[in-house]
Amino acid sequence: MQTDAATTLETVTLNGSTTGLPALGFNIARHNIGGSANNVVDDSGTEVPMKTSDKMPGFKFMEAFWLDWMSKDPTSTSWNRDTQKDVLVKLRSQLDTLGLKDVTISSSDENSPSLALSALASMSSDTDVMAAIGKVNTHGNDGQSLYRGTDREPLKKTGDPVKQKTLGFGVWIALDINQMGVSAFVYWQTLDSGAWGLVESNPGDNWIGTPNSKYYVLAQYSRHIRPGMTILSTDNTNTVMAFDSTSKVLVTCDLSSFKAVAGPITAWTTETSGTGVLYESSKVDLSGTSFSASIPAASVMTFEAQGVAV
């Protein structure tokens, strides 16, 4: 089943063709829908009903809350930041009054991390606004410059730093976790056309093809770094280290700083070219608290060590 491939940790068959597929274990889903409405707007005394575009695929359509669809610029780039700050504080106050203190408010959902950081920086001097924000949502459309500089400092003032809606892969995921403090990833669409989807698909005509190579790259992270794990610091921003304190499992490349490692150690390899191994497991020999492994070029490897004492 297609949902099993996205939400479980089983080995599944996709659409009857791709067998032995490692499921991704997602616990957050993004629905690819289109905002529309059927409300009527008063245009200088003339009532004009909204019409759904012929380009709107039927599977995407939903009734939304676009009150005035004739507004000239409804995009977030036209928002007044002072008004936004006022709304954030008022919304937090009202939620608290209704007993919804556990409901977290996000700052503006921007097209790229650099825009999200810029928006957050513009609000960072207002303590009331920063107290109202619990997370930052952003798409991942950006280069690597965003991982450097002082713009990242306001992220430390939010309770749940960043959730990405779209993302680069390989090294970018590692940088997102290590330097941006990303706490969750929400992928664009598991099933979508061409390179957009983790699995090539045309949702409009119910066709589902085969996984793109990035499916297996993301599996390296989503299958092994699970909810509740603690991200530990490393001296290499291309390396992500996560520890499960309950099961004593460490997902890492460096064991030298730990008291003891009982083992065993299992490795998983994905070669990003799409022509090599996609998600191949192997055993790694352990010597005390160290091991060595040969990592292919342009690949992602996960090492999972059992019985680790911090």
Descriptive overview:
GO terms for molecular function: hydrolase activity, hydrolyzing O-glycosyl compounds. The mean pLDDT is 82. The chain has six helices and 20 strands. The chain is globular, with a radius of gyration of 23 Å. The strands form seven sheets. Strands 13-14-15-19-17-18 form a six-stranded antiparallel sheet. Strands 7-8-9 form a three-stranded parallel sheet. A hairpin with an 8-residue loop joins strand 17 and strand 18. The longest helix has 17 residues. Among the domains are: 122 residues, no CATH class; 82 residues, no CATH class. The two termini are 39 Å apart. With 310 residues, it is of the alpha+beta class.
Sum this structure up briefly:
It contains six helices and 20 strands.
Kindly state the number of beta strands.
Answer: 20
Question: Strand fraction band?
Answer: 25-35%
User: Which residues form runs of ≥5 with pLDDT under 50?
Assistant: none
User: What characteristic shape results from the CA principal axes?
Assistant: globular
Alpha carbon gap, first and last residue? 39 Å
| Percent in helix | 10-25%
Q: Structural class from helices and strands?
A: alpha+beta
Number of helices: 6
- Order of H and E elements: HEEEEEEHHHEEHEEEEHEEEEEEEE
Please describe the biggest sheet, giving its number of strands, its sense, and whether it closes into a barrel. Answer: 6 strands, antiparallel
Strands of the widest sheet, in order across it, are 13-14-15-19-17-18
- Measured on Cα atoms, how large is the radius of gyration? 23 Å
Look at the structure and give the mean pLDDT: 82
